[in-house]
Amino acid sequence: MRREIAQFLRYLATERNASDLTIKAYREDLMGLVEWLEHEHGQVPAVDRLSPQDLRAFQAALQQAEYARSTISRKLASMRSFYRFAQRQGLADTNPAKPLRNPRRQRKLPHVLSNEEMGRLLGTPPGTDPAGLRDRALLEVMYSAGLRVSELVGLCDGDLDYEQQIVTVRGKGRKERISPLGSYAIEALERYEAVRERDAKENDLGLEAAVFVNRFGRRLSTRSVGRMLEKYLAIAGLDTRTSPHTLRHSFATHLLDRGADIRSVQELLGHKSLVTTQIYTHVSTANLREVYEQAHPRAN
Predict the structure, then answer these.
(1) Less crowded by CB within 10 Å, the N or C end of the chain?
(2) What is the pTM of this model?
(3) Of these residues, 136, 248, 249, 254, which one is catalytic?
(4) Among residues 107, 172, 175, 201, which one is catalytic?
(5) How many other CB atoms are found less than 10 A from the CB of residue 300?
(6) pLDDT of 47-60, one tens digit each?
């Protein structure tokens, strides 16, 4: 089996032009299997004699050794690739790694800001100059409507309906949805629009008027929003893990904490699948547990 693995690695290097790091990862994954087979059986079976049961046992050993799910999935992928090569070369009739399923990915709970932390962040931009008024409006709108940063910078004046207090959002795949805007966001937008200046060239080109612009009057970039947020996080003394997407996570979690039903939150976020939204129910439950343990006299 070592000979066939060496052939496979040469194939990756010469015909697939794989990087040294990629080849190193394949070598470690496949030789790990060889070493385990030697330890368990005293010998390594020929390539065409390895069975799905052998590989399931190897996968179980990895799980018992508490390898990360992502690491196990990568090792299984390496074995599938190796056996596809072996089949093409006539070294094996079947791919014993094909029936194996990757372990389920463990979804990390998203980082969210508390109500108090969100209030501190939203109150940080100064309300005395155009840049501060823009930044306050930007943060208020992102949190009020649960927007992705790409959706935020893509907003145009025509997307805002001040009378109805709603905004038309173009999400992934240009799919449109309507999101409500709270009174704080509306007020911040109106104060910002009173001082906003546009690039005359963009007006001449007939481009749609961007809601949020930089100091040159041109549409703000997602990177600029990230840098702006970092500045206000430092001023407010908030967790540096916070990203523009944290405001969207916080939006969803705070709605669920206050009794919103999950289907409504799914619509507001523009999620195609309810499964994507359900991660926030876990965050909300964790928050409830923390409150319970702090408040109930017999919780601990």
Answers:
(1) C
(2) 0.61
(3) 248
(4) 172
(5) 6
(6) 888 889 989 999 99
